[in-house]
From TrEMBL:
Cofactor(s) listed in the protein's UniProt record: heme b
Source organism of this protein record: Thalassovita taeanensis
SUPFAM superfamilies (alphabetical): Transmembrane di-heme cytochromes (SSF81342)
GO cellular component: plasma membrane
Family indicated by similarity: Belongs to the cytochrome b561 family.
UniProt-listed InterPro entries: Cyt_b561_bac/Ni-Hgenase, Cytochrome_b561_oxidase, Di-haem_cyt_TM
Protein name: Cytochrome b561
Pfam families named among the record's database cross-references: Ni_hydr_CYTB
Membrane topology: Multi-pass membrane protein
C-alpha cells in the first residue's frame, strides 16, 4: 500500500489505534462463544436473550472497522515511515500482509453485520472462513515482527511503540 507522503515514524495516534485494534480483535476471538451460541439459537428459530458479550462483539467489531478506516485516512493524510525491508521479496510479503489485514478489518465487520442485521446465513459462513484467514495473517504478521526484533534487530517493533515525527 503506497503511502503518498513518508514520515519519520508513526504518530502517537497511529500507534494507539494499532494496539487498540489488536486488543479489540483479540476480544472478538476470546469471547466468540457467546456470539456463536446466540447465532445458533437464532438460526434454530429460538429466542435469544440479551447477552453483554454479544453486544461487545457487535460494537467491538464495528469499532475495528471505524479505526481501520481512520488509520487508512491517516496513512494518506499524514503518511507512514518507509518500510524497513530485509529483502525485496520480504518487503512485498510485508506489504501484502498489511493490505490483507486492512481488507479483513473491513470485511469481517461487513460480513458479520450482513449476517446479524440482515439474517443472511451465507454471510455468517463467509465470516467463519474469513476469521481463519485473519488469524493466519495476524500470525504471519507477528512472526514477521518477531523476526525483525530478534533476528534482524532493526528497530521495527520500536516504531510501533514510540511515536516519532
Ligand atoms: C473485526 C471484527 C470481527 C471479528 C474478528 C469477528 C470474529 C468472529 C469470530 C472468531 C467468530 C466465531 C465463529 C465461530 O468459531 O463460531 C464470530 C462469529 C460471529 N460474528 Fe463476528 N467478528 C467481527 C465482527 C462482527 C460484527 C461487527 C458482527 C455483527 C454486527 C459479527 C457477527 C458475528 C456473528 C453473527 C457470528 C456467528 C457466526 C456463526 O457462528 O456462524 N461479527 N466472529
Ligand atoms: C490483530 C492484530 C494486528 C493487526 C490487525 C495489525 C495490523 C497492522 C497493520 C495493518 C500494520 C501496517 C500499519 C500501517 O502502515 O498502516 C501494522 C504494523 C505493525 N505491526 Fe501490527 N497488527 C496486529 C498485531 C500486531 C502485533 C501483536 C505486533 C507485535 C508483535 C505487531 C507489530 C507491528 C509492527 C512492528 C508494525 C510496524 C511495521 C512497520 O513499521 O513496517 N502488530 N500492523
Amino acid at each position: 500500500m503506497p503511502a503518498s507522503n513518508a514520515s519519520t515514524g508513526y504518530s502517537r495516534l497511529q500507534i494507539a489505534l494499532h494496539w487498540l485494534v489488536f486488543a479489540l480483535i483479540a476480544q472478538q476471538y476470546i469471547f466468540k462463544d457467546a456470539m456463536s451460541a446466540t447465532w445458533d439459537r437464532i438460526t434454530d428459530g429460538l429466542e435469544a436473550g440479551f447477552d453483554p458479550l454479544v453486544l461487545a462483539h457487535v460494537a467491538g467489531g464495528a469499532l475495528v472497522m471505524i479505526f481501520a478506516l481512520w488509520r487508512l485516512t491517516l496513512r494518506t493524510r499524514r503518511g507512514v515511515p518507509q518500510a524497513i525491508e530485509a529483502s525485496k521479496v520480504r518487503g512485498i510479503l510485508a506489504k501484502l500482509t498489511h493490505v490483507g489485514l486492512y481488507a479483513l478489518m473491513i470485511l469481517m465487520p461487513v460480513s458479520g453485520s450482513v449476517a446479524w442485521f440482515g439474517g443472511v446465513e451465507a454471510a455468517a459462513k463467509g465470516h467463519n472462513v474469513l476469521k481463519i484467514v485473519l488469524l493466519a495473517l495476524v500470525a504471519l504478521h507477528v512472526v514477521g515482527a518477531l523476526y525483525h526484533q530478534f533476528v534482524l534487530r532493526d528497530g521495527t517493533l520500536a516504531r510501533m511503540r514510540r511515536a516519532q515525527g
